[in-house]
Amino acid sequence: MANQLIRGSKGGGESPRTPVESPDSLQSTSYAKILLALGEGEFAGGLDGTNIFLDNTPIIGPDGQANFQGVKWEFRPGTPHQDYIKGMPAVENDITVGTELTESWVRSVTNTQLSAVRLRLSCPQLQEQKDDGDT
């Protein structure tokens, strides 16, 4: 019996489809109100934007230009008769539940001194990947 030669070659099919990524159309702006109180008694110095940092970046750079737009701050020296900071009339407390909601979720609030309750929901992913690779 003679040896038979086996040959193979690429099929004549189409080239694979390149997935298409949809443009980023998410528009989001986050705001934060922060009341930060450090120390006891009267403070010796003032506070300006060059010594307030967000992620190791001063709010006001050495050139006097704002590194973050829309940031406002007020300083209180710690004296007995100072004004309260307007816009912060209440104390808030976030309680992280960290639960994926797959069914009804009920939470009771028993504090009768509350004037409001805020509920924040988050979605970890707002995109869909189709079978052909498109997002």
Along the chain, the helix and strand elements come as EE
Biggest sheet strand line-up: 1-2
End-to-end C-alpha gap: 56 Å
Output the number of helix runs: 0
Would you identify the regions where 5 or more consecutive residues have pLDDT less than 50?
A: none
InterPro entries: GpJ_HDII-ins2, Viral_Tip_Attach_Protein
Organism: Xenorhabdus bovienii
Pfam families: FNIII-A_GpJ
Protein name: Host specificity protein J
Descriptive account of the structure:
This protein is mostly loops and 135 residues long. The chain has a domain at 35-103. Helices cover 0% and strands 3% of the residues. The protein has strands at 53-54, 57-58. It has a two-stranded antiparallel ribbon with strand order 1-2.
Name a few traits of the molecule.
single chain; 135 residues; little secondary structure; 2 strands; 3% strand; elongated
What is the topology?
Blueprint: E1 53-54, E2 57-58
Could you give a short description of this structure?
With 135 residues, the protein is largely without helices or strands.
